[in-house]
Structures are given as C-alpha cells and as structure tokens.
UniProtKB/TrEMBL annotation:
<dbReference type="InterPro" id="IPR050330">
    <property type="entry name" value="Bact_OuterMem_StrucFunc"/>
</dbReference>
<dbReference type="Pfam" id="PF13677">
    <property type="entry name" value="MotB_plug"/>
</dbReference>
<keyword id="KW-0966">Cell projection</keyword>
<dbReference type="GO" id="GO:0005886">
    <property type="term" value="C:plasma membrane"/>
</dbReference>
<dbReference type="InterPro" id="IPR006665">
    <property type="entry name" value="OmpA-like"/>
</dbReference>
<keyword id="KW-1003">Cell membrane</keyword>
<dbReference type="Pfam" id="PF00691">
    <property type="entry name" value="OmpA"/>
</dbReference>
<keyword id="KW-0969">Cilium</keyword>
<keyword id="KW-0282">Flagellum</keyword>
<dbReference type="InterPro" id="IPR025713">
    <property type="entry name" value="MotB-like_N_dom"/>
</dbReference>
<keyword id="KW-0812">Transmembrane</keyword>
<keyword id="KW-0472">Membrane</keyword>
<comment type="similarity">
    <text>Belongs to the MotB family.</text>
</comment>
<feature type="domain" description="OmpA-like">
    <location>
        <begin position="115"/>
        <end position="236"/>
    </location>
</feature>
<feature type="transmembrane region" description="Helical">
    <location>
        <begin position="20"/>
        <end position="44"/>
    </location>
</feature>
<protein>
    <submittedName>
        <fullName>Flagellar motor protein MotB</fullName>
    </submittedName>
</protein>
<keyword id="KW-1133">Transmembrane helix</keyword>
C-alpha cells in the first residue's frame, strides 16, 4: 500500500501519490544518459549527401539495379549491320561457268539448274588419280570459286561421290563405296580448309557404282559415271523445317 500524508487540521486529509520503486528511478536515469550520449554522437558526425548517394548508387549497380535513365546497352552507338541478300541462282551459275571456262574445264565440268538446286558435276579424272582420293591441282580453280560462292550464300551443300562398276580391292578402299565416300570427303574437307565454312551446312554421300548416269559397258560410259556431284540446295529447302513421321 502507498503512504498517505498527515491531516493538516482540515476535515479532509490530503493524500500523497504512491512512491515509485527505486529501480525504476535508476532505469530512467540510465535511459536519459544513453539518449544524451547518442545525441552527442549524432552532433559530431556529418553525413555528406553526395557521398551517401554515390555509395547507394554503387551498391545498387552491384546488385544489378540501374536508375531509370540508364540502360544496360547503349543502342545509339551500335553500328548497323547490313546483310547481303543471297546470290540468285542465275548469278551463281554464271560465276561457276566463268570459272570453268577460265580453267579450260568446260568438257569436264557441267552445271545444271534442277528442282532441288544447282548441281555441279565434275568428272573424276580432273579431281583424282585412278583409285585415289587425293585432290589433283587441276580442279582447284573451280573448287576455289565454289568456296567463294558458298561463303556468300547460306545454302546447304551436298557432296556426292560416284564410281563406275569396275571393282576395287585395296587395303585403303575395299570397295567402290569406300572410294566414292573418301573422294566426297576430300572435296568437302578442301571447302572447310579453304573457306572456313560451317560444317553443319554440308552433307557427304558415297554411292559407289549404284547411281550411274551412263552404261558401264563402254569406256566413255564408265568415264561419265566416275564423278563428284556438288548440289547447292535451294534456300527454301535449306530453311524448311524437318518433318518427322510419328512413331514410337
């Protein structure tokens, strides 16, 4: 119970307020001292607004947060890239024929426009020695022109090797399939090395003697069948998506 004051002679006695515990007075004094201490610390420290903003900005950029007036990329200074349109088939055929004429190979190289694209047929004696798959230098001018054309157009390319029906049995080439495939690979590898072209654009096939264009019962017919065909596919076929049949 709280203590009450004395009666000063009046009929109504004056009542004193309850006395607070001693620990509360001490606690209040400590809080007052702490408040005074922090006020003094704050008065001694000065915050520079510009330095504070720079620090906050650096922290935001470190977290990937950019101000509204800034962009990750400055598109104003990016130069415009002009993509050259693909060469028309007529222009490609003209350039190939000019290269053939310049190399004196009109009798050994033919160019034909087909539904699938432009087919270049090169007789094997121009490209390879008999039974070999190493390129001869005679056909390099034509191949060099093809490298330039392939580098200027995005068309896919198919390189096919063909032989006559004369069997071959060597340690390197057990059959005409191996020989025709190796010759197609040699031509394709030359394109890669000379023009730094993307391998994904090229396909290689070796058909052996099984896709003849002439009868094999004459020397002239067998010479026609010994060939490498290079198909520069149409853009439509190059860009057409692959359609896979359903199945399990």
């Amino acid at each position: 119970m709280g203590k009450y004051g004395k009666n000063n002679g009046n009929n109504q006695g004056e009542v004193d307020s309850p006395v607070a515990p001693g620990w509360m007075v001490t606690y209040g004094d400590i809080m007052g001292l702490l408040l005074t201490f922090f006020v003094l610390l704050l008065s001694y420290s000065t915050i520079k607004e510009e330095a504070f903003r720079r620090a906050i900005s650096s922290f935001q950029e470190a977290l990937g947060v950019l101000p509204q007036d800034r962009s990750v990329m400055n598109f104003e200074h990016i130069p415009a890239v002009r993509l050259s349109p693909p060469l028309p088939p007529e222009e490609i055929m003209k350039r190939i024929r000019n290269a053939i004429s310049g190399a004196g190979l009109r009798e050994s190289v033919r160019v034909k426009l087909e539904r699938e694209g432009i087919r270049i047929t090169i007789q094997t004696p121009i490209l390879f020695d008999s039974g070999k798959a190493d390129l001869r230098p005679d056909a390099l001018p034509v191949l060099d022109e093809l490298v330039k054309i392939f580098g200027e157009s995005p068309n896919d390319v198919v390189v096919e090797g063909h032989t006559d029906n004369v069997p071959i049995h060597t340690p390197e080439f057990p059959s005409n399939w191996e020989l025709s495939t190796a010759r197609a690979i040699s031509v394709t590898r030359y394109f890669f090395q000379k023009g730094n072209l993307k391998a994904a654009r090229f396909a290689v096939a070796g058909y052996g003697e099984y896709h003849p264009v002439a009868a094999n019962d004459t020397p002239e017919g067998r010479q026609e069948n010994r060939r490498v065909e290079i198909l520069l596919k149409n853009i439509e076929q190059t860009e057409a998506p692959e359609v896979k049949e359903g199945g399990t």
